[in-house]
């Protein structure tokens, strides 16, 4: 597993409270949903008895690993993982540590790799874009920059991809369009897609806090589109399916906080506030809201996911 180790990753690791022991019966709670430690937090997972099957998100889709009794893993900040299943006799512990060698006032630096390590693509026209998308292999991603609107070509490719192609528009200004294209080995579900969207927001935030004006513009575009997806698509459908109005009201208040901090991103207090709200907000959505939403809409999940992925840049 990338970004996991059997030994402490830093000599400056500090335990945050006492670790808790868990059994198979606890799996239906937080551990069955996607989870990621934030900022400078590492999680130490130890199996005392039985076996666990971990899943984690990679560019090519979902990977798995069996962790047996006596094994221990340190899970890095930003690594999205969950326990897919475990033996009936499983006993395991999870301990959160802070890496005091890393300043926790910015997203994990590794997040920036989502954008930094994506191969650039600058097709001259829609035909070249369609050809490039067709050649995109599982596990590959492209940082797309075009002078023309790529949305019609991308949507046609999405419709023909059996769910293995995703895109995350970054900017949609006239004559300057940007997006991240991702090909996975299997179909992407809504949890995977919105989880990657969260990670991309943090990746753009890393650049914005380094003074990169382009990454700041992408941060604004990503955030605007992501919040619009939730407010215009997910929240109304969630409420119509019997979801909690109180939960939606709380999320909308957090959206207002995010917009306020983003508007003042040059202020150190605002960029720290933005990070703190993002940490709690994303965790709540990925562990509680999105799984509840998908459970409520049932068989409509695939159609809803496809419609959300196909959305272009927010205007």
From TrEMBL:
Q: Where is the Hemerythrin-like domain?
A: 218-291
Pfam families reported in the protein's UniProt record: Hemerythrin (PF01814)
Transmembrane feature ranges: none
Name of the protein in question: Hemerythrin domain-containing protein
Instruction: Give the species.
Output: Denitratimonas tolerans
């Amino acid at each position: 597993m990338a970004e996991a180790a059997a030994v402490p990753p830093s000599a400056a690791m500090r335990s945050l409270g006492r670790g808790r022991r868990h059994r198979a019966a606890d799996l239906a709670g937080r551990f069955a949903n996607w989870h990621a430690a934030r900022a400078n937090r590492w999680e130490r997972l130890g199996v005392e008895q039985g076996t666990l099957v971990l899943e984690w998100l990679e560019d090519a889709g979902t990977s798995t690993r069996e962790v047996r009794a006596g094994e221990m893993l340190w899970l890095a900040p930003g690594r999205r993982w969950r326990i897919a299943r475990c033996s009936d006799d499983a006993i395991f512990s999870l301990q959160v540590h802070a890496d005091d060698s890393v300043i926790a006032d910015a997203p994990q630096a590794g997040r920036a790799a989502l954008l930094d390590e994506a191969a650039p693509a600058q097709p001259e026209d829609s035909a070249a874009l369609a050809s490039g998308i067709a050649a995109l292999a599982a596990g590959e991603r492209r940082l797309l920059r075009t002078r023309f609107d790529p949305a019609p070509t991308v949507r046609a490719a999405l419709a023909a991809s059996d769910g293995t192609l995703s895109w995350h528009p970054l900017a949609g200004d006239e004559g300057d369009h940007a997006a991240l294209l991702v090909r996975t080995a299997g179909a992407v579900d809504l949890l995977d897609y919105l989880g990657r969207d969260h990670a991309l927001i943090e990746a753009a935030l890393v650049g914005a806090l380094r003074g990169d004006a382009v990454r700041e513009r992408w941060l604004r575009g990503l955030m605007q589109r992501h919040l619009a997806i939730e407010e215009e698509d997910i929240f109304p459908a969630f409420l119509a399916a019997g979801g909690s109005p109180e939960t939606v009201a709380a999320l909308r208040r957090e959206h207002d906080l995010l917009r306020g901090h983003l508007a003042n991103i040059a202020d150190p207090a605002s960029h720290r506030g933005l990070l703190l709200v993002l940490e709690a907000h994303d965790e709540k959505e990925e562990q509680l809201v999105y799984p509840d939403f998908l459970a409520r809409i049932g068989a409509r999940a695939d159609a809803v996911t496809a419609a959300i992925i196909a959305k272009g840049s927010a205007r």
